[in-house]
């Protein structure tokens, strides 16, 4: 008898969880079905605790009475942890191998930092681009598109204003060249910002970019189920130029169709290439 009561409870909780996912999609246009269930539950539980509801059923009632709660839930869904020059070996590879190669072969370079959180990745890329391009030769012919699903993270990224501790290992010489300091805060200089275009974007939606030379999407796929990861990787494949490059997170591997189509270039820093004579 106890067993049956427990399964009914589980069933009701599952229904309530599904209803919450639908509400997010209906009200905020974000499709949660691609995320791993364990991940979603871990993130949703943060709001269950914050609202003292403790079950999805009670939380659903709470959300219906307090519609603004859904935005908070969506904000907590995103894990925004990031740093400037995260995984320094990846940036070394970009600076000394990949970006010089891409510059050599293109008049204007288009880069996409997908899932960029609060902007540290696209700003690190923009700083590298300026370092490689050098001073006194005009603006680098580069556009960096930077996107994330999280509206608050995008607002912070666009501002480009960080506390000293958020700059982490960025050396003083780079800080002096690329940031202005006001009190405890450091703001990315305008000439660096100028080449970056920020835009809120859900990776589960059809691509908004084409003819891209280099895509970075790191430490984002861990939240998605395998089928969604493959769908997103194929979306990147379609967005790249023939011969364009994709950089995945250091612990991420391609599977299914993307693994068959992309050519692995460097295993350690997880660089892949869309073959030059690709047919699709
Ligand atoms: C851990 S951060 C990674 C930041 C950066 N790429 C890095 O490697 O440091 C993960 C980011 O993925 C974003 N994200 C999660 N789901 C997304 C989706 N469906 N579309 C776009 N971005 C998403 C989150 O908002 C979060 O900012």
Short description:
The protein is 47% helix and 18% strand.
Shape label:
globular
Q: What oligomerization state is this entry in?
A: single chain
- CATH homologous superfamily assignment of the largest domain: Vaccinia Virus protein VP39
The percent range for strand residues is 15-25%
- Give the overall pLDDT as a whole number: 92
Structure class:
alpha/beta
* CATH fold category name of the largest domain: Rossmann fold
Strand order of the largest sheet: 6-2-1-7-8-10-9
Instruction: Give the number of helices.
Output: 11
Order of helices and strands: HHHHHEHEHEHEEHEEHEHEE
Number of strands: 10
What is the CA-atom radius of gyration, in angstroms?
21 Å
Would you mind describing this structure in some detail?
The strands form 2 sheets. The protein has a 7-stranded mixed sheet with strand order 6-2-1-7-8-10-9. Strands 3-5-4 form a 3-stranded antiparallel sheet. The mean pLDDT is 92. Helix 1 packs parallel to helix 3. Strand 4 and strand 5 (185-188) form a beta hairpin. With 280 residues, it is of the alpha/beta class. It folds into 2 domains: 2-77, Chemotaxis Receptor Methyltransferase Cher, domain 1 (Orthogonal Bundle), CATH 1.10.155.10; 88-273, Rossmann fold (3-Layer(aba) Sandwich). It has helices at residues 2-28, 37-50, 56-65, 69-77, 88-105, 120-133, 151-159, 172-178, 190-193, 226-239, 256-261, and strands spanning 109-114, 142-148, 161-163, 179-182, 185-188, 196-200, 212-217, 240-248, 263-266, 271-273. The protein contains 11 helices and 10 strands. 33% of the residues are buried. The protein is globular, with a radius of gyration of 21 Å. Bound molecules: S-adenosylmethionine. Residues 78-82, 86, 115-117, 121, 148-150, 153, 202-204, 218-220, 223 line the site of S-adenosylmethionine.
